[in-house]
Amino acid sequence: MTTPYKKKLIEVAIPLEAINAASAREKSIRHGHPSTLHLWWARRPLAACRAVLFAQLVDDPSSHPDRFPTEEAVEAERKRLFTIIEDLVKWENSTNEEVLERARAEIRASCGGKLPPVYDPFSGGGSIPLEAQRLGLPAYGSDLNPVAVMIGKAMIEIPPKFKDMEPIHPGMKERNHYRNAEGLAEDVKYYGEWLREKAWERIGHLYPQVDLPKEQGGAKATVIAWIWARTVPSPDPAFAEAHVPIASSFLLGSKTNKEAWVEPLVDKSKKTVTFKVRRGGTKAEIAAAREGTKSGRANFRCLLSGGAITADYVREQAKAGNMGQQLIAIAAEGKSGRNYVAPNQMQIDAALVAGYESDAQSFRDTFLMGETPTRLTGGTCHAFGLENWGKLFTDRQIISLKTLIGLLPELREKIRLDAETSKIKIDQQRLSDEGSGSSAYADAISIFLAFAINRSADRGSTICSWDSSPKMEALRNTFARQALPMTWDFAEGNPYSHATGNFSSNIGWVFKVIEKFHPSNTGQEIQFDAQSVEIPSGSVISTDPPYYDNIGYADLSDFFYCWMRASLRDVFPSLFSVLATPKSEELVATSFRHGGRESAEKFFLDGMSKAISNMAKQPSASAPATIYYAFKQSEVAQEGISSTGWATFLQAVVEAGYAVVGTWPLRTEMANRMVASGTNALANSVVLVCRQKGDTAEAITRAEFIRALKRELPPAIAELQAANVSPADMPQSAIGPGMGVFSRYRAVLEADDSPMTVKTALQLINAELDEFLNDLHGEFDADTRFAATWFEQHGTDKGDYGAADNLARARGISVESVKHAGIVDSSAGKVRILKRAELDPDWDPAEDDHLTIWECCQHLIRVLENDGEYAAALMLKKLGPDRAEMVKDLAYYLYDVCSNKRKDAKEATSYNGLIAVWTDLTRLSATIRIEDVNRQSAMDI
Description:
By secondary structure, this protein is of the alpha+beta class. Helix content is 45%, strand content 13%. β11 and β12 (308-309) form a beta hairpin.
């Protein structure tokens, strides 16, 4: 069907495997990655955002029949564009100006020479606006959450203001030029160290070194962390006045033969528990240390009486204010690993920060009185007495962070004075008033240092625990997962050490991100509700909205908001004028906030429908919109691609006025793309490609819809196959063209004139995909058709010869023919398909006088799995292009058989893995000359 607009690449095909592989790899990249600037939850991978934006804006070659008149020409041009995307998604190329400019040139060519603005009304962690800006597009974002807005401003609004500017700090090294945000990064690093030194001058005495015992060198050492156990009064009346530790572990280090652990020393007569650090020990002692005093979930045993300390008792004592804490060990820096020592009175006294208690309490009362979440999906500490943010921090932790924050006004004044001798404009216009001179620059640096302080808060609360695993022996951060779980023993890190979580390293993390910013256009981030925000005219929409109840962003972000409010209320007063982040308006289906599951779901869907309607009202005629949908893995596993949540979300999109014209599954959790890694796992999110539905859309009947599906879906699936979309991703990818048929009509009417639901449409699309794959079966040679059917019925198990004979005769062949082809074994009245391990390892298609597509497919997988990609590419070369395409078709068909009919996930993975590397195999095979290989083989002989 012809369209009134030029189709974009994303509406036809994209190199999905390359995008998914780059997105998965990105998770292992830390230093310099924007996600490390400031924590935000469920960020979209930058590689995926970059690829989607490019494909969303660049014309598909089929839109230019004058330039690409044949299918071959279209396919060749598509492959060229795919190569650009494959380069673009690599992390190493994220600052490669040559690669980026090549992508920008394609966008300009498809957009009439002008780069359109991109808008994300759910900007969150800012991945989409950041990647839009990297591609040279004006970037706009908005979010209801002030923490998200601040992250967005830091990433897309501030760097362009000070692009290519040299640093202003005194004593800087001479350098020819500074590109992008490198000068800004240098100043953040310099003034961050100034901030650290000033804070050390004021409170360094609160972090004394520790005296090591003779066996550990006998010198003084810098403390890495003070390790504490929470305590409650013993429930035994005989020891009621004594506090006892409730610790989930006494293990400090678990390296084999170098174990370190805390041994509690119990004195019942004095009603005390003290601690000794031990090295080594028996397996039983180390196993006991690993368990601490825990006897179950929030249940412990009393070290004084041996009696039980129940979870209810702990909760009751905590709420009554009777939970305390006891220093049980100190971890210190060492020349060859960690040193652990027992606490002494000097260290205990330093931790109590005598003389600073009122300062700490005053700061709590002013900034940290907000309530911690009463419920969170991953757990919350609220029920155990930590009901406000101030109670998540010791006095020393608060004094440390408060001191850094208190120095920020002085720092801003110093920056303004230093700027007088630089090239920057000297003025008083603040950053919040869109300034770009010295005062705005001082504000900008203090924002990035506030982020470093927030990183320190994440590493500096009593939710942080000690990781005793052999490779770590280090401090965990507060948000090791998306929750605020109760920790029974916690580690208080030293912000002035050289270990994980120190303030200098937090400055360093921020510096490395800023240094790699690549602001290629302007950006703007504002606080606004997506349901009513005014989107700039002509903007291209790309957004990643929240999904149901996966994450309570507002509840979690309050942890950072309270510190950010203390740091930045003078810089952006409008963002930090309230005590906590907005919650009742947040588009998340939180049952306890909305009076139950049903009303929470209704709130979410109503709000999401309004937000999507708001997007659809302000369309860009030149490009489609893209909306990311995050799957719940449990939902997909139980209900498949027509799951209720997915269908409901699609329904909301369609009812908002969009026609869904593409769906692309993104998999960002893949550990490795190789065959054995389970690459047939379902995608964890899908990108919906949407066009505004035309005003002239008509209604059609169910029968007309099915006929349209049969007419339009097969060529669309063929294009997806040509783009090597993996079999595992095919069901979700095929939804796009299928929904394109469904959603371009005003309604599809059932027999009773009621409108067809999206869920029903999804089921019909899936049925049509099955029919398409089954039709592939008829195009294979007779031996392969026999093998495919026999495999579907029996796998590689034995079946009766009589049934096999009937099946073979129906295909005009005999069982002996299939046996002669090397596909089956037939003996003792039984027939079975040969396993790949039983195939001839020296098989050569050129020497096979009874060649079948079945053999070609199985041998290709065998060689790929055993000998790697080069050997598989060589075999592909020998097969030739026509047979290769038939092998690919068979792999799609057999994946469907294994996955959906035989439920054999292991075998399905092999077929999926072959398609996953098909692009690389075909590229590699194109470089191989058979005559060269033959000549080398002869020389080897």
